[in-house]
Structure prediction request, 301 residues.
Amino acid sequence: MTSTTPARAGTAVAAACAAFGRDVEDNLARVGGLVQDARDRGVGLLALPEACLGGYLSVLGVGRDGSHDERPDDLPPAMDLDGPELRRVAEIAREMTVVVGLCESDGSERYNTAAVVTGDGVLGAHRKVHQPLGESLFYSAGQDFACVDTPMGRLGTLICYDKAFPEAARALAVDDADVIACISAWPASRTATGASLAEDRWTQRFNLFDAARALENQVVWLAANQHGTFGRLRFVAHAKVVGPGGDVLATTGTEPGLAVAELDVPAALETARRAMFHLSDRRPETYAAVTTSSLTGAGRA
Prediction:
């Protein structure tokens, strides 16, 4: 792919909250509209939601007996990283860096994937590692975490449930991430729904994870999310930009749209890390149990 960039990328960063279904052409048109809106607002890096190119799974849940008693009516269309859909995204992105979610196929396995795209093509991709509530029935799991260099700095990507694991974001931070984009199709609780979406317990968890991961790693954090409903799922929205001090710089709340923050990323990181730099103060030799523990479920009896 070749860039047809006529302009210099903006300095703002943004995360999108929008609805995406199975219609790939409609999704690409929506991507185009969001990218143009972001471009008009000076954005150089935009994170779009998980599964934005083909929609998410229409149901996701576990029965009371531990069985997976609900199945999606259909599955997202499988795409290739070198395929026509991502070529279209590259044409749309031009000078911008855009993170998009898709169902990737390598010819034998399907993965829930986040691709980092500019007008020059796909710079890198992350396959979702942590799989909640039966997602492993439909996708294979990714195996690693790695950053890529972009025009907006060194970027790491995560997908949805990945954010619940501190080790995932930390792996990107120690790979010198300036920005981590976590794209999601994060739903509201189906068993103890809040009085409002803003008060839902899964909304609260979504927001807590975003602030904690940004603060503990002292990175700029972009959290994109789906909006509305898909099958039996209702998404919590709340796309946001979080600064390296854990402060929310912009959010969509429960509404669709873009959370945009004008941000000098290197300066923001330097300021946050000037007095206390969490990464340099680590004591990795004391953390062996984090990766060697065999605990499962609720832990030791």
Summary: The CA atoms of residues 92 and 285 lie 46 Å apart. The chain is about 20% helix and 25% strand.
